[in-house]
Specification:
The protein is built from two helices and five strands, in the order αββββαβ. It is an alpha+beta fold and about 100 residues long. It has a five-stranded antiparallel beta sheet. The radius of gyration is 13 Å and the shape is globular. About 20% of the residues are buried.
Length: about 100
């Protein structure tokens, strides 16, 4: 098994567990202000994106399990045209809609 595919398998398993986590306020984001996971409804499925990195200027990169990158700009808006369940929504809107998950406590 190639290292990349093994890492994706491990990440997929971890994300499968995370999606079942409660969205309560008793948890804290790993990077303050950025949800660890965003769930984007898409037809009869959900696309899961996880926080990959943040920048000092306030941007963040999220990544899908198949290595597609989504940038959240300094305006904190999720922009990805083929993700209608998330595209154009702010991180606060996604959180209010129950579309985010946090891993740490």
């Amino acid at each position: 098994m190639k290292n990349g595919s093994g890492q994706r398998l491990l990440t997929a398993a971890a994300l499968a567990v995370m999606v079942g986590l409660p969205t309560g306020t008793g948890h804290a984001d790993m990077i303050e202000g950025f949800p660890d996971v965003i769930i984007c409804p898409r037809g009869d499925m959900n696309r899961i994106v996880y926080l990959d990195r943040t920048f000092t200027d306030g941007r963040a990169l999220y990544r899908t399990l198949n290595d597609q990158v989504v940038e959240v700009g300094t305006d904190r808006v999720f922009r990805r045209e083929n993700e209608p369940g998330c595209d154009g929504k702010t991180l606060d809107e996604l959180r209010a809609n129950g579309q985010t998950r946090t891993l740490s406590q």
